[in-house]
Please model this.
Amino acid sequence: MAWCLRPFAALPACLSNRNRSCATGATGCVCVGDELHRGVNHGRNAGNWAAAGPESGAGSVSQPFVDGYRFRSALTASLGFVAFLWLIELARLAFGWDLLPFGVYPRDAAGSIGILSAPLVHGSWTHLLANTPALLVLGTLLWFGYPRSAFTATAGIWIGSGLGVWLFARESYHIGASGLTHGLLFFLFTIGVLRRDKRAIALSLVVFFLYGGMVFGLVPKEQHISFEYHGFGALLGLILAFVLRDRDPPPPRKVYSWELEDDEEDEFDRGLDESEPPGPRRMRTDNRAPWIYSSPLKQRRNAPIPARWSEKLS
Model:
């Protein structure tokens, strides 16, 4: 049994074709092409979905089916990450752990561990509760809209913002996932502006209207708020949007009935063109004449007179 549960894993057969996206059934993996998603047998009554070639005559997976699966996978991934953060906070309260040393402490060797662990640590329930909705929404939109770029974007924002804080921020412990949320916000908005397909623009508008006010977090306001983490997260999100803008293929364009009719008319016209006589071609009319362009009619007109005809004429 092969599972193709993006964003966590991918079936090698799916990854062998870079122009495919994957959807998973109860007992297997379905590789769906980017155009019309033809050639996939998804026997719902039988309970198994198996990949089939275009020549097999099988049914097709509709685009809403693929989008619905992708959205559920993205939401599951975001919920799992947020649940892990809440589990850490529960463990901190239950066992009385001091997790502050796991934050980023700038220009300190021991504090460099926070580059990896700081987004997992929060100072209080209020701090975690403030980041939870943004992580859920932005994480889901990221994995739904850009599944191929999502892991690279998340890892780049995570590590790059922590490294920037460690190099240039104030000497204090910097903790929390707000740097990650600012990076996701700027990534989703910028990549939508760069790609300009319908889905990307829609995602950009959603994140702008929901969390556009987060840009004010880049301005130093309160002493205990790490605007450095916000700023470096936003900077990494902006950079990665330019780098990864072409990694995910655009969504398949809907094909309308009149477009299919136009294609049939074009094929009919091509059939008529093939039935017409050939056009002028380059040929030699006799052994002494130079190369000229001649049609079949001119070729017959310039053909030498047979010997028996010339005798009669003489």
In short: The longest strand covers residues 20-24. The chain is about 55% helix and 10% strand. The two ends are 91 Å apart (CA to CA).
